[in-house]
Design goal:
The chain has four helices and no strands. It has 173 residues and is mainly α. It has a domain of 119 residues: Four Helix Bundle (Hemerythrin (Met), subunit A). Helix 1 packs antiparallel against helix 2, helix 1 packs antiparallel against helix 4 and helix 2 runs antiparallel to helix 3. The protein is elongated and about 50 Å long. Bound molecules: fe (ii) ion (2 copies). The site of one fe (ii) ion has 5 residues, from helix 2 and helix 4.
Amino acid sequence: MTHPTVRSHGRDASAHAPAPEGSTPARAEGRFAWRPEYSVGIEEIDVQHQELFRRAGLFIESLKRQSRQEIGILLSFLRLYCVTHFGAEEAWMRRAKYPGAAEHHRQHDQFIKDILALSDQHEKPRGTGIDPARVSGWLEKWLKHHVMEVDTDLARHLRATGTPPPDPEEPQE
Ligand SMILES: [Fe+2]
Ligand SMILES: [Fe+2]
């Protein structure tokens, strides 16, 4: 007996018919499955965060069974999207004259540095490689904290000031 998959359009979709214990469909995608509580309340940002979680999940999954080369590719795939997404948020912060921009920017930069350090560690021929449990825990914790605290504060400011999204062609500073 299977339950229809709950689509993510409405926050209340699962409230009517909670799945029986142990058969939650979200489990299939693991700890990087997108959840409605990660929403910052701005569609443009949520869509990008969904892609970020998807790429993080692909990278972590790859640690279990894929080749060294594929792991490296998926780590780059994650990093490149971080650069794109962080750039978009930073452009939006500038447009909104967000008071927390400097600290927010610093957290983005540190995360990219950490991902690059991970890539170096992964590529060292005789290095210890990546510890899946440690990296998975770190990545999950960082993403959830950043999205649910730091990005949520930013989104609150963007909504309060009614700042429209930046033009995608806007030059980076
Ligand atoms: Fe951010
Ligand atoms: Fe973000």
